[in-house]
Specification:
The protein is of the alpha+beta class. The protein has nine helices and 19 strands.
């Protein structure tokens, strides 16, 4: 049995067999609060996937990592979860040309940063939730086809405690029945879908330029609100949008732009379209150096660059993780130097980012910039200084060689030609 791993060959075969028309995901998160006597605290996840068979064959599998599955229905036919679900995959036999899969499961809250992470604030006892999926942890929250090339639109709805607010990739609101419903997304990959829920402190602003208007939001847990300098976050965000709109000639494609600074985060940030998540270490509790503000600004712009390169256009498989991250790493410094107060960002890049790459290159774990990613386990090992900073150094050389105008024109043409692909 493959367990929770997924190979490149399996992903290629599945992409050749089917295409996904859309997801409807309903989560009930009310179990996140209150006492629990369960060894593993769980929430209900009901997923409806509409997909078509586009290749030869009538058997495939969906991905789900969950403690239990209540029911599985394929095209109105009840499947026995004890037979088709092995803890990580749901076997699907007898596919039709058009298919509807409904999976009702009990999924587990995370305490390790993968899937739906649940944090209890030790200061006031408030509970905060957020998701983190890269490279393949959306399957810990809802059933799906967990590979980046099977893009689809999503509709999320979330039932949450009354005192909470919920955010996702699209704009949302709470209905009269108490359920939060979110606008359907553009076609995106599973790993960049997102849900953030809890009594977060939330600040809003708006980016306006010509006919473009983007609602902005920034949030943190209530206990950090007194330290949260949202004005500077919004300043850098607006400067970034100015830069990317000027140079990419493709308006930001995902509606709103929320940025959540969340606790116990395993990484610096994640480029979920419309709902970017950051480590709350970027909320400074006291006086810090200019370098600290520059680092935060670089991360904000790195994630914003992904809205185009990574989210609008996406790698087929994790072999090209390096190009997605190298592009954003390069663009973080490039946009900082040209659009913000941090005009010496290329000096910082040389001193910090390239030094990170040099260190990684001297270790036994060094690898080519373009790595051979055979499966998800390989992908998890590839988030390093070579994938990010050495690759960004290569792109910096390319820009110096080919010229800034040619490089940006190449990006502009690529976005238009491959949008949502």
């Amino acid at each position: 049995m493959p367990g929770e791993n997924l190979s490149r060959d399996e992903a290629h075969e599945r992409a050749a067999l089917l295409s996904v028309d859309g997801y409807e995901v309903a989560l009930d998160l009310r179990s996140a609060v209150g006492e629990s006597t369960e060894a593993v605290r769980t929430f209900r996840s009901v997923t409806t996937i509409r997909f078509r068979r586009t290749g030869e064959g009538d058997t495939t599998f969906a991905d789900l990592v969950a403690p239990s599955v209540t029911s599985v229905t394929l095209n109105g036919r009840e499947l026995d979860p004890a037979v088709v679900f092995d803890g990580a995959r749901i076997t699907l036999d007898g596919l039709a040309d058009e298919n509807v899969l409904v999976v009702d499961a009990q999924c587990a809250y995370s305490r390790t940063g993968e899937g739906l992470h649940r944090f209890v604030d030790p200061e006031d006892g408030e509970v905060y939730l957020y998701t983190q999926y890269e490279p393949a942890d959306a399957r810990r929250v809802y059933a799906n086809f967990e590979q980046p090339d099977l893009k689809a639109p999503y509709r999320f709805e979330v039932t949450a405690p009354d005192a909470w607010t919920v955010w996702s990739n699209g704009a949302g609101e709470r209905g009269a029945d108490g359920v939060w419903r979110f606008a359907e997304t553009a076609p995106i990959s599973t790993y960049i879908t997102c849900v953030v829920a809890g009594p977060y402190h939330y600040v809003t602003d708006t980016y306006r330029r010509g006919d473009v208007e983007i609602p902005l939001g920034a949030m943190c847990r209530k206990g950090l609100a007194k330290h949260f300098d949202a004005d500077d976050v919004f300043l850098v965000t607006k400067q970034g949008f100015d830069f990317f709109h000027d140079n990419f000639d493709y308006p930001y494609p995902f509606g709103k732009y929320d940025q959540a600074f969340v606790p116990e985060y395993n990484l610096g940030a994640m480029e979920n379209p419309g709902m970017v998540t950051f480590t709350e270490e970027y909320i400074y509790r006291g006086k810090v150096t200019r370098a600290a503000y520059e680092r935060r600004a670089n991360t904000i712009l790195h994630e914003m660059a992904h809205m185009w390169f990574g989210d609008l256009v996406t790698m087929v498989w994790w072999d090209d993780l390096w190009l997605k991250e190298s592009f954003a790493d390069f663009m973080g410094s490039f946009s900082l130097a040209e659009a913000t107060r941090f005009t010496d960002s290329w000096v910082t890049f040389a001193n910090n980012r390239k030094a990170w790459a040099y260190r990684a290159d001297q270790l036994p774990s060094t690898h080519p910039v373009t790595a051979d990613i055979r499966d998800l386990e390989d992908a998890k090992l590839n988030f390093d200084g070579i994938t990010y900073a050495k690759g960004a150094s290569v792109l910096k050389q390319l820009v110096a060689y080919a010229g800034r105008d040619a490089f940006l024109e190449g990006a502009r043409r690529y976005f238009k030609r491959h949008a949502y692909g």
